[in-house]
Amino acid sequence: MVREITHTSDLTGSALRLFEAEMRRSVLERGRFVVALSGGSTPKSLYHALTERSELPWDKTLVFWGDERFVPHDDPDSNYLAAREVFLDALPIPAGNIHPWPAPDEGLGLEEAAERYADTLRAVLGDPPTFDLQLLGLGDDGHTASLFPGTSALHAQGLTVACRPERVPQPRLSLTASALSNSRTVVFLVSGESKRAALVATLQSAGDEDRYPARAVRALERLVWLTDLPLKV
Which domain holds residue 44? Predict the structure, then answer.
């Protein structure tokens, strides 16, 4: 695995170029592009920019999510709804290629929803499922996806985990650290001064994964940190 730390004044442009390159490479080498999206505000500018790239091989793209709030798909807090409204609905991606997490109005409990998504991943991608590109963010507390500091979710086995973090409004569903890491390329998009302390601590050569869960995520080929924060690590 190669770790890359890139400071850029154009986070959206850098992320867009990387996304497009990984997409074209994956389609050329394997005939499809498997991407897992991140929620939160940081990737939204990338998603907006992708709407201008309708010529890309979207028909060969499979879309998943690294985590989700356990809310209906039409809830304003849904990562799926945000991505759909910002860019997925504007692109020619076959509906059957888009795989959101199960929602509570489908009659499943939290743990059942986590198991159902694991079944979907295996059915569509094989066992173990491999992603071409995993997009992730970083919370100012060091969390990534829905793996929060000091929670048992960080040490969960298998592909998915049901999460009930304290001081978080909704229950969460998340890929495990090992499932996130089974990605050819993992890209963390980190923006804003409030993330500086968590980013520096996460990037240190040694540290506590329980305190900074993003440290638990690896990659099969490239682990890329894109940030607009100048750093010395």
Answer: 2-124+220-226
d(CA 130, CA 132): 7
69 and 115 in contact (C-beta within 8 Å)?
no
Give pLDDT tens digits for 220-231.
999 999 999 987
Is 152 within a domain? no
Type of residue at 45: S
Phi-psi region of 192 (alpha: psi -120 to 50; beta: other; left: phi over 0): left
Which is it for strands 172-175 and 67-69: parallel, antiparallel or unpaired? antiparallel
Q: How many domains does the chain have?
A: 1
Question: What phi-psi label fits residue 126: left (phi over 0), alpha (psi between -120 and 50 degrees) or beta?
Answer: left
User: Tens digit of pLDDT for each residue in 177-196?
Assistant: 999 999 999 999 999 999 99
Q: Quick check: is 202 in a domain?
A: no
120, two tokens: 């979907």
Q: Could you give the 3-state DSSP secondary structure of residue 46?
A: helix
**Could you give the CA distance from residue 38 to residue 166 in angstroms, rounded to a whole number?**
21
